[in-house]
Structures are given as C-alpha cells and as structure tokens.
C-alpha cells in the first residue's frame, strides 16, 4: 500500500517539520475558535496538546497566542489548564500579548466552578507584568473573600506575588492586614498556613524601612499566636507543621512552665511519620531547654528513640539526613548514645556515604564499656570489598585507640592489620601506628617488632612511607636495620616524587645519625647534599638548615632535631567549638549535612563572583576554606613536624625562609635561638671558628661542599610568551582534564598586600611577567584568580589557581601544566613574579 500524500500525513508532535506546522495549528485553532459544533472540545484538546508539546521542546509557538485566548472560552477544565499553562509561559516575555489575556482571566475569576476561579486567579497573578498590576487588585480582593477555601489559598499566594511585582501597590491595598485577619479567623488550615508564610516574607522585607512592619513581625512571636498555631498544629499538613515549628523555635518562653506547656503540646509530633516534622520538633525541644541542663539531657534521651526509628525505616537519603543530625547530637553527648552503638553498625546494602557516617558515629560513642564490641565490628569492615570503607574502618580503630586509656586489645588488632598483606590496609595502619606511638610510647617495643618486618619497597603511598620513615628515625636504636633501610631510600632520592617523604627522610637521617653515627654518616651526607640541591623550596630550606646547625654545634643540632621524646596528650580537633555551636544553632538545615555553618556556603562574599566557579571547582574563599587546601609540601597538623613534641611546638618560635615557610624548633635559651637565627642568615662562614670546623665536618659527611658558600639551586630558565592567548572554554576543559602538578603556599610581601585593594592591581602586575588572568573575583580580605601562561615558541600551557588572603598574607597556589617536567620551573617563575608585587 503506497504511503499517504504529504497533505494527509500528520507528523509526531515531538518531531515537527518546520514553521508550516505552527501555521497549520494557527489556522485550525482559528476555525475552532467560534465553533459550537458537537465534539469541538475534543478537537481543541488535540490541538492544545500539540501546542503544549511544541512549547515543551523549545519551539516558538507565541504566534498562536491570540487563537489560544479565543479558544479559551469553554467550560472544559482540561482546556482551561492547558491554556493557562501556555499563557503563563509566554506572557512575561510578551507583555503586549498579555493584555489579550486579561479579559478572559478576569471573566474566569468569576466562574461558578471554584476550580476554574482558582486556576484563573493563579494564572493572572503569575503573569508578573508590572503594567498589569492594576488588574490584579479586584480579583485578589474577591479571592480573599471567596467562599471556597481553594480560591482563598490561591489568593493568599497571589498577594505575595503581587508584593514582589509592586510592593507599594500591595501595601497601599492593605492586603497584609487582610491576610492577618484570615490567618486568625479562617477555618481552613491551608489558608492559615499560606497567610503565615506570606506575612513572614512580606514583613521581613518591609522591616528594614518600616517600624510598623517590625512590630507586626514581632507580633508573630507573641505567646497568644504561638499557642494558637500549636493548638491547631494537627490540622496542618507536613509543610505547614514545619513552618509553625520553625516559628516556635524563635519564641522566647516567659518561664519554665511555658517551656513544659509547649513541649507537652508537641510531644506527639516526635512520633510523626514525616522526618522533617520530627527534626523540626527536635529542634524546638533542644532550643527551649538549652538553659536547663538536666532537662536538656532528658530531651536527648527522649528524642533518641524517634530518630533511631527514622534511620532504620526510611530511604538511604533520609537515613543519611537523620544520621547527620544524630552525629551532631552524638558529638555533643556521646554518653547518651553509648548503649545504642549497635544501631550504627553498617549494613551490607547501605550506600558508602551512610557507612562512612556510621563509622564516624561509632568512633564518637566508643567508651570503656563498648570499645571491645565496636572495635571487633570495625575490624570486620577492614576486609570490605569497598576499599574506601576498609580505609575508614581502620582509621576509626586508630581514633578509638587514641582516645582510650586501655589500648591493649586495640594495639593487637592494629598490628594484625599489617599481616593482611593488602597495600591500602598496610598504608593506613602504618599512619595510625605512628600516631599511636606518639601518644603511647610505651607500646614501641611491640609495634616496632612488627613494623621492622615490613619492606619499604611494598609501600607506595606518601603518608604511609613518611610514617615508616618517622619510626625508622625515632626508634633507630631498636631497629637493627634502620640505618640501612634509610640508606636505601636516600639512594633512590631522585625517584621519590613526594616532598613530604623527602622532608621526613632528612629528619629521620638526622635522628638516626645522633643514635648510630657510624652506620648513618654516609647516608646523612648523601641526604643533605641531595636536599640542598632539591628544587622543592621546603626540602632545600630544611636540608640547608640542618647542614648549618650541624656546622654550628652537633650537640645543639641533636637538641633541636631529636629532643627527649614526650607523649602527645591530645591531637588537634579539625573544627573549633565555635563552629560546632554555630552548626547546632542551625539544626534541621543544610548546615548539619555539610558540617559547616550556612555563611560558609551561602553568602556571596564567601563564594566570590567567579565566572567559571562552577566549572573550576567552586572553592569558597574563606579563611576556613583556605586552611582546607593542603599544599603538596604540607601534611596534617598532627604530622607537620614530627621532630617536635606538642608542648614544644606551642612554645617555640620559627625560623622563616625566603618563601615564607616556617620551621619551629625547641631552644634552651634565648642565646642559642639568636645564634641559630644569625647562622641561618649569615651562612656557614659567619666566623673563623665556624669556617675551620666546617672543613672537618664536610670531610666527615663526605659532602665535598665549599664552606665559603652553599649553592642555592637555580631552576632551569623558562621563557614565557608575552602575547599568550587562551579561549575560556579551552581553559575550562584543560582545567578539568589536567592533573595537579604542584600545590604550594607562599607568603605575600606587605607591599603586595597593601597594593591588593582590587583584583585588577595584581592582574596588571602578573601580565607584565607574561602571566595572564582569565577569571578573578572576591573582595578584601579574600581574592581568587585563575591565571594562564604559555611557553615561548612551544604550544605548552600552564594553568594556575591563586587564592590570596590579605589578612594572613598567604597565597595558595595550584598549578596544572601540559608539560609536567617544567611545572616546577613555572611555579618558581610564578612565585618570583608574585614576590615582586607591590615593590617599587
């Protein structure tokens, strides 16, 4: 059978053939506009569906606006809905066409059917065309007095829309007063809830310039109104209940009886099936009893059961949200939840994000009574097929060991992990054993006997290798092979890419030298020579510092680098108590999920107006965010300088290097401190005595270095193209694809900080050094830049993210490069250019 003629074919609405389709629709709608024939509504439905389909897939059908309005004269509610949808979509972009809709919408607002009245009023208020505001007043006034609750509900929302179109018109028409009257006297709970939401928003916006609005806003928190809402709370839906409970949180009770009355009214809300209502009620209970310590603790006991029930009965997403709030409560009162630790055991079918949160909670609630059971469970997770969960479980065991006094069984479990012969398990365990030895040195014999059997060749992760090297240096006298293992690692210095590991090698070689000098002499000489020639600034500075302090006095060097070992009493917390209290105040919000106060992820001054913020990481430039960016040469605060004890770090001052890095060292008197600082500045040839002794010392170590001057490594020259250009899209694509070549922190000179009042000042300066800015933003004290540069005569790009905090005078630099081999050279060029900023 031959296909039908082109005129007889009707293409799919989702695949229109072109403008002719819209023209055909227009003519067909015009024919049906005035028709009263039987079945005409069915024909209109088919055409309306085509129009809506075209509109949905992005085809412009605004040319049929007039015909759609003419066809709207019908009692078919389905046609009305589709017509209102069409009108609402095109009215704002075509204000002139919107005038065509006023008559039929106003007519529908008086229809006998309350559904049509409500839909018409909603569509009329949704036009949001300032020129049509005068046409809204009459229908809104009638809608607020309508006998049907649905129409009144729509009218209340329409008042809020009118306020955002023209605030003065809304206030002059006295709509807020009408809403207040409805809120207090209407029998329908949804109308009351909409009135409350609208009045809160209107009076909050008006309060900045109207004393009357301030008084009205405060009146919402009066005792009669609060009790009026709470007594009716069962009538409202979940959304409205949460709105009322948020209002109750802000209420200040007059006395303890007032508090107990409110809690009695809301007691049954804790058993609600909706998690949002339960969390909102919990927040009310917690905030009301903050000043009543005993009652506050009883509240924890009361809310525990409903929250644990929600965790086990909801979806994974709901479980995570409830668990996040439980985690906040567990941290504040771990003893309350200590007996319920089994609720936080991981299930095999749970998502990894839920498991991670449960591991954190198990760590927080561990105490003397449940530690054995919790650690036994955590050890089972170490063999999990999910490597990340296995790592987290090992870390959890380590954290529990660090916070307990009786760690006998836990140490045995940790050492058993080393026998599993899994790289990631061994790596995590070594880091934890190192921390454990810092707090419990008495366990060194048992730990070192096991760690000594681990081959350094099987450890690839930098943190784990650094931990092993630290133990080799700290306990060199107990490990017979320590000097030879260190010597092997030092001989492969060039193959070690982690600056963290190279820094630990220098320190460990020094410690081992003081304990077993004959066996370590050669290795230390090689390490110092390699360190001084290292292109990484921190490695170079530390090696040079060690070299000079050894020249000055070996005994002083030993007191500096390897002081008597002292147990660390406590490790630093990652969050301050102030931040935690702020998060608690924002209970039942995203702050709890993100584990940071709302100002860190909402306010513009902390986000920064960056053109490519979504594409390039969207890192908030706050002091807190800056501290989270860990440069390659830095490591965690607990590990930052393993040659010092905690007490000494707090008491001692640092020696600053040229790039702003600071090294702290214990000093026995101000005399030694001043001599060492003078030595670090003047060099090994500061005095005749020092010069003479340095010859002997160089011979001892076999360095063969001239004492007249210690050479500073000169990185290879890198010439940049002054006329470099890069398309923003190409920048975004490369930034996503390229790995990070180097991450460092620099100090910005005071002149540069003074000159950095606006981003443009630094942009011009860097451009003079052939480093160009493609995006920038922020305001004092936080600035963020994205720079790019190109190698001269070669198609090689260098991309740089620079975050500068002018209050701390620090710059966080992240470099990505097409040529990884020259990225360090570019980082040096960038640092040099930045160091000259603000200089005359």
TrEMBL record:
Query: Which top-level group of life is the source organism from?
Result: Eukaryota
- The main place the protein resides is membrane
Residue ranges with Low complexity bias: 1-17
- Under the GO molecular function aspect, what terms does this record hold? clathrin binding
Cellular component (GO) terms are: clathrin adaptor complex; endomembrane system
Give UniProt keywords alphabetically. Membrane, Protein transport, Transport
So which residues are the signal peptide here? none
Residues in Beta-adaptin appendage C-terminal subdomain domain copies? 718-835
What subcellular locations does the record give? Endomembrane system
Q: Where is this region: Disordered?
A: 1-25, 646-669
Q: What does the similarity note say?
A: Belongs to the adaptor complexes large subunit family.
Q: What is this protein called?
A: Beta-adaptin-like protein
What's the source species for this entry?
Raphanus sativus
């Amino acid at each position: 059978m031959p296909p039908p003629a082109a005129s007889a074919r009707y293409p799919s609405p989702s695949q229109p053939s072109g403008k002719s389709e819209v023209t055909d629709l227009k003519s067909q709608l015009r024919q049906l506009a005035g028709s009263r024939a039987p079945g005409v509504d069915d024909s209109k439905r088919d055409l309306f569906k085509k129009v809506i389909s075209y509109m949905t897939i992005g085809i412009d059908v605004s040319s049929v606006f007039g015909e759609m309005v003419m066809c709207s004269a019908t009692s078919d509610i389905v046609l009305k809905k589709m017509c209102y949808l069409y009108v609402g979509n095109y009215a704002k972009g075509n204000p002139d066409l919107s005038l065509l809709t006023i008559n039929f919408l106003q007519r529908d607002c008086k229809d006998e059917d309350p559904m049509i009245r409500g839909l018409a009023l909603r569509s009329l208020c949704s036009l949001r065309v300032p020129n049509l505001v005068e046409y809204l007043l009459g229908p809104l006034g009638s809608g607020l007095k309508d006998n049907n609750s649905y129409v009144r509900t729509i009218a209340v929302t329409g008042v809020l829309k009118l306020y955002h179109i023209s605030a003065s018109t809304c206030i002059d028409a006295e709509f807020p007063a009408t809403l207040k009257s409805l809120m207090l006297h209407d029998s329908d709970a949804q109308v009351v809830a909409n009135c409350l939401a609208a009045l809160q928003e209107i009076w909050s916006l008006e309060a900045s310039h109207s004393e009357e609005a301030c008084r009205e806003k405060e009146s919402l928190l009066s005792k009669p109104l609060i009790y009026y809402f709470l007594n009716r709370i069962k009538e409202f839906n979940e959304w409205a209940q949460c709105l009322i409970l948020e209002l109750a949180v802000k209420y200040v009770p007059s006395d303890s009886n007032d508090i107990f009355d409110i809690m009695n009214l809301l007691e049954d809300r804790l058993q609600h099936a909706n998690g949002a209502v339960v969390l909102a009620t919990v927040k009310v209970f917690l905030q009301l009893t903050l000043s009543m310590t005993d009652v506050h603790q009883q509240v924890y006991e009361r809310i525990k059961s409903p929250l644990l029930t929600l965790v086990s009965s909801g979806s994974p997403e709901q479980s995570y949200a409830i668990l996040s709030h439980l985690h906040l409560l567990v941290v504040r009162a771990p003893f309350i939840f200590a007996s319920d630790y089994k609720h936080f055991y991981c299930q095999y079918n749970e998502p990894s994000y839920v498991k991670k949160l449960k591991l954190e909670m198990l760590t927080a609630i561990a105490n003397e009574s449940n530690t054995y059971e919790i650690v036994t469970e955590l050890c089972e997770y170490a063999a999990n097929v999910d490597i990340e969960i296995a790592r987290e479980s090992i870390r959890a065991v380590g954290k529990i060991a660090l916070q307990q006094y009786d760690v006998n069984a836990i140490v045995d479990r940790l050492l058993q992990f080393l026998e599993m012969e899994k790289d990631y398990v061994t790596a995590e365990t070594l880091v934890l054993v190192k921390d454990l030895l810092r707090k419990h040195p008495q366990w060194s014999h048992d730990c070192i006997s096991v760690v000594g059997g681990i081959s350094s060749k099987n450890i690839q992760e930098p943190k784990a290798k650094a931990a092993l090297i630290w133990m080799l240096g700290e306990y060199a006298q107990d490990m017979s092979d320590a000097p030879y293992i260190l010597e092997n690692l030092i001989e492969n210095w060039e193959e070690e890419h982690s600056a963290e590991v190279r820094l630990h090698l220098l320190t460990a070689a020094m410690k081992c030298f003081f304990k077993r000098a004959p066996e370590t002499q050669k290795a230390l000489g090689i390490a110092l020579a390699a360190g001084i020639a290292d292109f990484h600034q921190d490695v170079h500075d530390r090696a040079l510092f060690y070299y000079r302090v050894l020249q000055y006095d070996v005994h002083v060097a030993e007191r500096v680098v390897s002081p008597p070992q002292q147990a660390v009493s406590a490790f630093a917390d990652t969050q301050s108590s102030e931040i935690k209290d702020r998060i608690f105040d924002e209970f039942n919000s995203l702050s709890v999920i993100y584990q940071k106060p709302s100002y860190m992820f909402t306010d513009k001054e902390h986000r920064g107006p960056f053109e490519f913020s979504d594409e390039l990481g969207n890192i908030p430039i706050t002091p807190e965010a800056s501290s989270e960016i860990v440069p390659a040469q830095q490591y965690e605060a607990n590990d930052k300088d393993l040659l010092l004890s905690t007490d000494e770090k707090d008491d001692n001052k640092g020696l600053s290097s040229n790039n702003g890095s600071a090294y702290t060292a214990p000093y026995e008197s101000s005399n030694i401190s001043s001599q060492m600082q003078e030595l670090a500045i003047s060099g090994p040839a500061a005095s005749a005595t020092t010069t003479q002794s340095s010859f002997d010392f160089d011979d001892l170590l076999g360095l063969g270095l001239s004492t007249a001057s210690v050479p500073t490594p000169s990185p290879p020259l890198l010439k940049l193209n002054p006329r470099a250009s890069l398309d923003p899209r190409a920048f975004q694509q490369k930034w996503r694809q390229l790995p990070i070549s180097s991450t460092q922190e620099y100090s910005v000179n005071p002149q540069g900080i003074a000159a950095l009042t606006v981003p443009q000042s630094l942009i011009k300066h860097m451009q003079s050094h052939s480093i160009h800015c493609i995006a920038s933003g922020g305001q004092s004290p936080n600035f963020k830049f994205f720079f790019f540069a190109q190698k001269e005569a070669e198609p090689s790009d260098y991309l740089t993210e620079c975050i500068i905090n002018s209050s701390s005078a620090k710059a966080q630099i992240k470099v990505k490069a097409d040529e990884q081999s020259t990225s360090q050279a570019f980082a040096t060029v960038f640092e040099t250019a930045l160091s000259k900023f603000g200089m005359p």
